[in-house]
Amino acid sequence: NGFIYTLQVPIKHAGPYQLRMALRDVNSDRLGSATQFIGVPDVKKRRLTLSSVIVQAATHEPSAVANDATEDGVEDVDPLASVALRTFRQGTAVNYGCYIYNARISSSGQQQLEYEVRLYRDGTEVLRTGPHPVGTPTHRAEDSFAGGVLKLGQEMTPGTYVLEVDVTDRLAKKHSRATQTVDFDVIKG
């Protein structure tokens, strides 16, 4: 059924990186590998920035989307609910979310963030929501999170979709918007 392996890799400098992983099954001696390009934003520039968007089957609260795997460990998962595979059946609900960095804070200690979500299939917009206010962080301003639940209807055409999260900081004069996207597949329910 697959598994998720979590490994924290410290990155000293912003920029593009290529992450390469290889895995060997000790019982069969079979090998597998994968690569992924990753853009590490320069948060030191103090511009509004978003983490990658994480999507997974809606079995947890949206704010817990990025924290499901054990730290430096392995978690057994349903293969269709995998954060890595991003494949969902028609008619299911999907949690999505991303963290927001460098949001401006007013003199009263509040943020004025809002986000919009757009869903595309073959370059055509099929859904738009928002704008929605971003909730006030419970611990630190750096913990701002934009996310929610996306219901995939039974009538959705199977195929590849792109989910776009667009965050606006109403307090910022420059660089007040940041956008991130993630693709996922919908299969027959």
Structure description:
By secondary structure, this protein is mostly beta strands. The chain contains no helices and 13 strands. The chain has strands at residues 3-5, 15-24, 31-40, 49-50, 54-57, 74-76, 87-89, 93-101, 113-121, 124-133, 145-151, 159-169, 177-187. It is globular. 20% of the residues are buried.
Q: How big is the Rg?
A: 18 Å
The biggest sheet amounts to: 5 strands, mixed
- Strand arrangement in the largest pleated sheet: 7-13-12-9-10
CA distance, first residue to last residue: 18 Å
The unreliable regions are: 62-70
The ordered H/E elements are: EEEEEEEEEEEEE
Average pLDDT for all residues: 84
Helix content: under 10%
CA-based shape:
globular
Number of helices: 0
Query: Given the helix and strand composition, which structural class is it?
Result: mainly beta
Give the tally of β-strands. 13
Beta fraction: over 45%
Topology:
Elements: E1 3-5, E2 15-24, E3 31-40, E4 49-50, E5 54-57, E6 74-76, E7 87-89, E8 93-101, E9 113-121, E10 124-133, E11 145-151, E12 159-169, E13 177-187
Parallel strand pairs: 7-13
Antiparallel strand pairs: 1-6, 2-3, 4-8, 5-8, 8-11, 9-10, 9-12, 12-13
